[in-house]
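FW: tagging you since you asked about this chain on Friday. Here's the raw sequence from the shared folder, copied in full. Didn't touch anything.
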Amino acid sequence: VSATFQQQPALLGKPDDSKTALCLSGGGLRSAVCAVGFLRGLEKLGLMAPIEVLSVVSGSAWATAGYMFAPGACSELLGKATRPAELTLDFLSQPPPRLAEGATAQVMPTARGTCCLSSGNNSHEVCRSLVSAAWLEPFDLHGEAYLAGSEDSMLQIKAENSELKDRAFLFPRKDRPGTWLVGSVVLPAEEELNKAHPMLMSPEYIGAPMPLWSRSRIYEPAIFPFKKDVLSGHLVSGGVVESFAFGGKASSSATGSVVLLPEKPFCLSKMITISGLGQAEALMKARSLEPKLRWPAEPELKSPSTYCFADGGVLDNSGLMPLLQLGVQRITWLVSGLRDLNLDFNLNTMGDDLDPDAVGIDEQVLDKFGFGGSTQSQKDRNQVFNKAELLPILAELQDRRRKGLPGVVRRSLQVLQNQRWQIRGAYKVSIVLVNLGKCSNFEQQLPKATRDELAKGKNGLFPNFPFLEPAGAGNALVSYTNAQVNLLASQMEYMAEQASALIRGILPRPVPKLKLRPELDVKLHAELDGIKQALRKEGPAKKYPSLLRSNSSPLQKV
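HL: got it, structure written out here
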């Protein structure tokens, strides 16, 4: 087949002040529910319209798959807007928003699923079936369909590859962020994680940018477009390939074409299961099935060695690092962590080592500033900001929480160079950090009966809220109740509202629209459509796909 392969794709560009992104961290079912509630708040305020990139990992990938692909109004998918005062126990017991139903499902695959539970099925396929049944089947997104970045991209792929003419494709909605990045990891099977390599997945491309600091090495083929350093055993990216062709074999001519179509599509269910493999394993444990810590490469992906994929949270559970690879300079970052901020922690005692449990902040935040990890290499692995920047952030978070406010701060941070993630650094990023935690102002507005249940702690309906403890078998945390989902989603909606002024502050100023007389407007759009058709016919649109999508391109300014 004919497919675009790029070593340094336009998607992964230099720092760009015009790019705006939303980053939703991982964290299993908790992060999935948080993502739904936060998106509801942003949609209600009209703050999703300027978002160009949505970066997700693990549980947030599960919840946002339906947001990106499923039809339906936001009020149907994300639920209707709520106010704390109306969250009675009866109200909370109602079915949750459709995108959050998977968090309440005691899922068993059906005949419609990607596979059924039986002794003859591979455990990783059973794992995918469980995830798909909960998060994709309700929207009919569970099929073996190829992925494309848009309807135009799909039509172009089919036009250039006759064997795909009648194949099923999925592509995101037009009214969603233009880029949906799903975090994952690729590594040699059974190897230590220090040989793992970040892998970015999206409906348009899969892979990672080429190393910015190249060295003379001997490589052997791995999972295209990745290759293996023979001396060190580490994987190195060779660029990205269009998602519909991922799993095919690269041509020996090194022209950038994939000449063999994969036997099976790398479909949406595989993408989100791999990204959230850690929580997917809990679904299997709850059913007395043996979980798999790694997702094996499909037969057509195998090279002389065996490779596998792992949960995106293995290397970075924040989803922030891919955005810094992209050079995004305006980011809203939701941290759906495990720990509640310790308001009694004395920040003046901070040293080079910082215990996440003592300060009450997740490692996905600490490691961005060079803290966390038992070795220096682990501390440096995800560092992208100066250590000195963390103390004032924690101090402001503590101050807001003591006042009963959500943990929300805005900062302009200098980005450091990071070789592992191919981040150039030497630019500033504006970040609004939204940290999950107890919010007294929200709780005080709840009806009395709901407050009473919260006060019961682990003996009530909302144990350890907002860091809820799902029900499950043994240590397998597999589901929430309707009331838990609805209350957590509503708090995240409230936090989005409270953060809205800071989020608006980092958005680019809107450009005034040019008003034309109706007859000129019709003529201009007719001419623009003609140019687009000519480009598709001649082929440059394939080589420069951003030309037809970017509002800042010369073509769009005609």
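FW: Residues 23 and 333 are 5 Å apart (CA to CA).
HL: agreed, and The mean pLDDT is 81.
FW: great, closing this out.
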